């Protein structure tokens, strides 16, 4: 069976068609600038030149129609009929407390997704638009929602509750939800396979490090804690997000600086993180280049980021009373040789020992700890699309 994986943003759409008989990616692509001048679709197929289609796309329905047409194209396509698409798996950011696993989409699920939009106003609405567009274009094809929050719904109350009046949790669902769950789940289970062990027997700390970043504690194959919270703003310092701060800073900025709620929200989400500290960029590659060239603020931003990740690793090792493997994934985690080295430094007392030579790897699966390291350090490239496709296949 072939499964189409869709990940909709507000003006973009990522897709991948996967043959689940051998889990081979047949085609993957990106549609950019949906509803904006300069819309284009870029598709990659193994063994072929990259295909780029520049054509106006007024909405997501238009975009998905072009995706299907491209997949069916006699020259650029990889299937002969849309009937070959057995199901569509949709990445949905927020499933609230109700969904601890993926689910076949029906009317009740669609109502819930709309209700949860208040918890993820920037993410769930585009996800919903993508689902509706697919349903309209492929009315007889089953749709599955795979939630970023689902994997973390196994967290115990002591991990997900905030020190706020309990009524705010019961009445307004204010609690830690966690995100990047699909990625954390994939790399945890893949690491177990690489180690030749049952994931139920392992205590893992998974580090999803990119422009958005989070750390998770995975004990026995389930998430018991994670760094992101009620929103993706909590936790690590990120590309443009502040991560953990004293909540009193917010009213202080409003009182002393005269900032509005919208201005503070914009600062915390879009002007902070390594961008705010470095004054250089939100891209870690640019910051590393600047630090190497002697920019002290760029170096400071990297130091703060590495320190925050290290703190969360220690926090989660304590929470699980041990660790068997430390896993790095996502853009920075998979490719950041220096980042991994800096984070792993001074963790030797946990039995975490990095092999500098093995660590010289980018974007490939590898164990990068020393042979005598008590704890394995691993690079495991994430594959959220495959995880979504697996969940979709299992449900249908």
Automatic annotation (TrEMBL):
<feature type="binding site">
    <location>
        <position position="14"/>
    </location>
    <ligand>
        <name>ATP</name>
    </ligand>
</feature>
<keyword id="KW-0418">Kinase</keyword>
<dbReference type="InterPro" id="IPR043129">
    <property type="entry name" value="ATPase_NBD"/>
</dbReference>
<comment type="function">
    <text>Catalyzes the formation of acetyl phosphate from acetate and ATP. Can also catalyze the reverse reaction.</text>
</comment>
<feature type="site" description="Transition state stabilizer">
    <location>
        <position position="241"/>
    </location>
</feature>
<comment type="subunit">
    <text>Homodimer.</text>
</comment>
<feature type="binding site">
    <location>
        <begin position="283"/>
        <end position="285"/>
    </location>
    <ligand>
        <name>ATP</name>
    </ligand>
</feature>
<keyword id="KW-0808">Transferase</keyword>
<feature type="site" description="Transition state stabilizer">
    <location>
        <position position="180"/>
    </location>
</feature>
<dbReference type="GO" id="GO:0005524">
    <property type="term" value="F:ATP binding"/>
</dbReference>
<feature type="binding site">
    <location>
        <begin position="208"/>
        <end position="212"/>
    </location>
    <ligand>
        <name>ATP</name>
    </ligand>
</feature>
<dbReference type="Pfam" id="PF00871">
    <property type="entry name" value="Acetate_kinase"/>
</dbReference>
<comment type="similarity">
    <text>Belongs to the acetokinase family.</text>
</comment>
<dbReference type="GO" id="GO:0006083">
    <property type="term" value="P:acetate metabolic process"/>
</dbReference>
<protein>
    <recommendedName>
        <fullName>Acetate kinase</fullName>
        <ecNumber>2.7.2.1</ecNumber>
    </recommendedName>
</protein>
<keyword id="KW-0460">Magnesium</keyword>
<dbReference type="InterPro" id="IPR004372">
    <property type="entry name" value="Ac/propionate_kinase"/>
</dbReference>
<comment type="pathway">
    <text>Metabolic intermediate biosynthesis; acetyl-CoA biosynthesis; acetyl-CoA from acetate: step 1/2.</text>
</comment>
<feature type="active site" description="Proton donor/acceptor">
    <location>
        <position position="148"/>
    </location>
</feature>
<keyword id="KW-0479">Metal-binding</keyword>
<keyword id="KW-0547">Nucleotide-binding</keyword>
<feature type="binding site">
    <location>
        <position position="7"/>
    </location>
    <ligand>
        <name>Mg(2+)</name>
    </ligand>
</feature>
<dbReference type="GO" id="GO:0006085">
    <property type="term" value="P:acetyl-CoA biosynthetic process"/>
</dbReference>
<dbReference type="GO" id="GO:0000287">
    <property type="term" value="F:magnesium ion binding"/>
</dbReference>
<feature type="binding site">
    <location>
        <begin position="331"/>
        <end position="335"/>
    </location>
    <ligand>
        <name>ATP</name>
    </ligand>
</feature>
<dbReference type="GO" id="GO:0005737">
    <property type="term" value="C:cytoplasm"/>
</dbReference>
<dbReference type="GO" id="GO:0008776">
    <property type="term" value="F:acetate kinase activity"/>
</dbReference>
<keyword id="KW-0963">Cytoplasm</keyword>
<dbReference type="InterPro" id="IPR000890">
    <property type="entry name" value="Aliphatic_acid_kin_short-chain"/>
</dbReference>
<feature type="binding site">
    <location>
        <position position="384"/>
    </location>
    <ligand>
        <name>Mg(2+)</name>
    </ligand>
</feature>
<feature type="binding site">
    <location>
        <position position="91"/>
    </location>
    <ligand>
        <name>substrate</name>
    </ligand>
</feature>
<keyword id="KW-0067">ATP-binding</keyword>
<dbReference type="InterPro" id="IPR023865">
    <property type="entry name" value="Aliphatic_acid_kinase_CS"/>
</dbReference>
């Amino acid at each position: 069976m072939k499964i189409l994986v869709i990940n909709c943003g507000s003006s973009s759409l990522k897709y991948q068609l996967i043959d689940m008989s051998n889990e081979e990616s047949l085609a993957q692509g990106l549609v950019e600038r949906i509803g904006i001048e300069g819309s284009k679709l870029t598709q990659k197929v193994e063994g072929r030149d990259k295909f780029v289609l520049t054509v106006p796309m007024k909405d997501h329905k238009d975009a998905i129609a072009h995706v299907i047409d491209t997949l069916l194209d006699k020259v650029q396509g990889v299937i002969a009929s849309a009937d070959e698409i057995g199901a569509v798996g949709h990445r949905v950011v927020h499933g609230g407390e109700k969904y601890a696993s993926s689910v076949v989409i029906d009317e009740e699920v669609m109502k819930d997704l709309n209700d949860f939009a208040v918890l993820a106003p920037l993410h769930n609405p585009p996800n919903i638009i993508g689902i509706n567009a697919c349903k309209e274009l492929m009315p007889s094809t089953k749709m599955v929602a795979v939630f970023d929050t689902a994997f973390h719904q196994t967290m115990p109350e002591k991990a997900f509750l905030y020190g706020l009046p309990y009524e705010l949790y019961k009445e307004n669902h204010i609690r830690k939800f966690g995100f990047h769950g699909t990625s954390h789940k994939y790399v945890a289970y893949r690491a177990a396979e690489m180690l030749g062990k049952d994931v139920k027997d392992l205590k893992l700390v998974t580090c999803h490090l990119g422009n958005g970043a989070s750390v998770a504690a995975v004990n026995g194959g389930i998430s018991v804690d994670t760094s992101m919270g009620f929103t993706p703003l909590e936790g690590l310092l990120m590309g443009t997000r502040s991560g953990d701060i004293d909540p009193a800073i917010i009213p202080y900025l409003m009182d002393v600086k005269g900032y509005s709620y919208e201005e503070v929200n914009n600062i915390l989400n879009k002007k902070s993180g390594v961008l705010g500290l470095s004054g250089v960029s939100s891209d870690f590659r640019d910051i590393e280049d600047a630090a190497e060239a002697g920019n002290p603020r760029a170096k400071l931003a990297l130091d703060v980021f590495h320190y925050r990740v290290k703190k969360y690793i220690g926090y989660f090792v304590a929470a699980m009373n041990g660790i068997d493997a430390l896993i790095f994934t996502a853009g920075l985690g998979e490719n950041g040789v220096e980042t991994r080295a800096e984070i792993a430094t001074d963790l030797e007392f946990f039995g975490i020992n990095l092999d500098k030579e093995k660590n010289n790897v980018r974007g490939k699966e590898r164990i990068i700890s020393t042979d005598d390291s008590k704890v394995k350090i691993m690079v495991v490239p994430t594959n959220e699309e495959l995880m979504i496709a697996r969940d979709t296949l299992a449900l249908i």
